[in-house]
């Protein structure tokens, strides 16, 4: 199966939304504030933004088999521009190199925008994802804490 990594196109939001269901499946969970209509608008804004990338993996039949969203999110005093991977999913296509290709494309996108590093969060329960991230040889690891508002 040939895989192409490309930027999502305006109007593809409805095709992309089902990929989020994979992120909500155990050990993940659906955020209480999840609203597909709001998510479609946010996807469209990200697709249109210079400071965001919505990358998709498409197979040779035209099926979307993975998604990665990345954002240039802050200019750190210590590190300079940081980019952030918010969503990375390759539902039903694990261990085929799709996640690696999407993450590499996100790193390239971040580098092109002058980011000094790319970060992401992963829930402690996502042990399979952690094995993948370790294979991708991160420069460092850290804990992340969050407070719902």
Task: Summarize the model shown.
This protein is an alpha+beta fold and 149 residues long. The chain has helices spanning 13-24, 36-48, 98-112, 127-135; strands at residues 3-7, 52-59, 64-76, 80-89, 117-120. The protein has one domain (3-135): Gcn5-related N-acetyltransferase (GNAT) (Aminopeptidase, 3-Layer(aba) Sandwich), CATH 3.40.630.30.
Describe the structure in your own words:
By secondary structure, the protein is α+β, with helices and mostly antiparallel strands. The protein has a single domain, classed as Gcn5-related N-acetyltransferase (GNAT) (Aminopeptidase), CATH 3.40.630. Helices cover 33% and strands 27% of the residues. The chain is built from four helices and five strands, in the order βααβββαβα. The protein has helices at residues 13-24, 36-48, 98-112, 127-135, and strands at residues 3-7, 52-59, 64-76, 80-89, 117-120. The chain has a five-stranded mixed β-sheet. The chain starts with a strand and ends in a 14-residue tail after the last helix. The model has no long low-confidence stretch (mean pLDDT 91).
């Amino acid at each position: 199966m040939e895989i192409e990594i490309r930027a999502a196109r305006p109007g593809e939001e409805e095709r992309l939304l089902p990929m989020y269901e994979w992120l909500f499946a155990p050990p993940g969970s659906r955020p209480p504030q999840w609203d597909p209509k709001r998510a479609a608008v946010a996807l469209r804004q990200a697709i249109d933004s210079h400071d965001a990338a919505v990358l998709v993996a498409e197979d040779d039949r035209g099926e979307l088999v993975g998604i990665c969203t990345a954002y240039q999110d802050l200019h750190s005093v210590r590190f300079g521009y940081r980019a952030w991977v918010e969503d990375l999913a390759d539902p039903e296509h694990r261990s085929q190199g799709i996640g690696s290709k999407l993450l590499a494309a996100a790193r390239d996108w971040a580098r092109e925008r002058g980011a000094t590093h790319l970060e992401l969060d992963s829930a402690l329960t996502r042990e399979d994802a952690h094995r993948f991230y370790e294979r991708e040889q991160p420069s460092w690891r850290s804990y992340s804490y969050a407070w719902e508002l």
